[in-house]
Design a protein that fits this description.
The chain contains 10 helices and 7 strands. By secondary structure, the chain is an alpha/beta fold. The termini are far apart.
Length: 271
Amino acid sequence: MTQLATAAATKPQGKTLAYGFVIPNYNHHLVITDTIKALVVFGLPIILVDDGSNEETQQVLAAIDSDFHQVTLIRRAQNGGKGAAVQTGLAAAYQAGWSHALQVDADGQHDLNDVDRMLKLSLAQPQALLSGQPIYDDSISKGRYYGRFITHFWVYIETLSMDIKDSMCGFRVYPLAAYHQLTQSSRLGNKMDFDIEVMVKLHWQGVPMHFIKTKVLYPEDGISHFNVFDDNVLISLMHTRLFFGMLWRLPKIIYRKLMCRKTSGQPKVSN
């Protein structure tokens, strides 16, 4: 177990914090083994969710489950979408007693060199949701790049703030108690809408959010399950629901913003 992993199990203020990784996987058999090898060095448990993958991927995941004792493999009988797979993993993590889960996509897009930085920041801010704020290179398509700004615009409206720097990056640390509380009163999207929706709704719930800039790569031989038409329609419908959800919660959102300003504006008292 690494030094960081040991600290993550015992800090802070006598409270037990238990961290681990959640990885949704659908037919990403080419890079998933390398991803697992990069994560096991942290000495933390890993929940790997097979979202109804093909036989070739199932064989690779079975080998991973056999070779790495930190890995728990959960198989979904049918493909339900990225959001469904993540929710399966987060629910299992909560039931296992974890306090936090670091979601990592299986397609090799994320810079895992930033895992250490994310875990340390989470230890310092255990109540917060931490997320990557992508730094892109030339591998991102123009459509994907500019499409994100449309979502950013709507998220700013839905939260009446610019607190959420990026709502689409799947590289994030969830405080599981807050996430579990949300799932008891709200349904979440099962596909590409999940990452956005869960972040907006956790913001409505009052969960603080912090972001770290991180490199995101879209390799030429990478596998993307984003359907340009279907998923954009799905996300558009989600934004419509969130907009009207914001209107319903408007008094509460405004009250919280006013209280935050009042608290931050109070002078410090010295003894």
